[in-house]
Amino acid sequence: MLLQLNNIFKWVNSGGNKVFLLKDINLSVQQGEFISIMGPSGSGKTTLLNVIGMLDHFNEGTYHFLDESVHNLKPKHRANLYKAYIGFVFQAYHLIDELTVYENIETPLLYKKCSSSERKALVADMLDRFQIVGKKDLFPSQLSGGQQQLVGIARALISKPKLILADEPTGNLNSQQGEYIMDIFKQLNQEGVTIMQVTHSEKNAAYGSKIIELLDGRIVN
């Protein structure tokens, strides 16, 4: 078992009332699964992804990731856990504008005790894998959307995560670029990486082995 959520509730207080963002979420994810999370806007998809990615707290329930009780961890331990095992791919790329492609991809390794020669080798590997060697000295603003997303995926993968969380990863891409990105996810999943993606696209959702539908913060299927 990679992760397990039990009876997760998350709410915000608004004018003395609780507004629920997630309601009674129970979810188990095995290593090697490819899960698509669907549902209308405002149904809690991104919130769920952020809770799983430990970027967001929750109010009630328990969360186990590998053998750790996430709900009991101090913030620093939680951060170490997700940096070690989780890679994020966002719709808006979230690249650092002032850094080159090379430096963006290298960033996660700076948090780890990697020697400089090891970092070089790992970045070279990623540049090669995604065929962006020729772009390594460019800045994000000099790349197309599809290229920026490739850099985002390379950065997410470089620390060899067990889980990739992707929030609308093809949302800003044309259909050809989107298909290319989804094929990369499929390939990564075949190599054993667990993937959870939030998507509005039936076509992208079909790449997954399981679809979870959310409505008003609840899992409905």
Any key phrases for this structure?
about 220 residues, alpha/beta, Rossmann fold, 4-stranded antiparallel sheet, 7 helices, about 35% helix, about 30% strand
* Average pLDDT score: 93
Strand order of the largest sheet: 6-7-8-3-9-10
Poorly predicted parts: none
User: Which range does the strand content fall in?
Assistant: 25-35%
**Strand pairing plus helix content: what structural class?**
alpha/beta
Listing every helix as H and every strand as E from the N terminus to the C terminus, the arrangement reads EEEHEEHEHHHEHEHEE
- Please give the number of β-strands: 10
What is the name of the CATH superfamily? P-loop containing nucleotide triphosphate hydrolases
Instruction: Describe the global form.
Output: globular
Radius of gyration, taken over Cα atoms and rounded to an integer in Å: 18 Å
* CATH fold name: Rossmann fold
Count of spatially separate domains: 1
Helix coverage percent = 25-40%
Number of helices: 7
Q: How far is the first residue's CA from the last residue's CA?
A: 21 Å
**Describe the biggest sheet?**
6 strands, mixed
User: Mind telling me the CATH class?
Assistant: Alpha Beta
- CATH architecture level-2 label: 3-Layer(aba) Sandwich
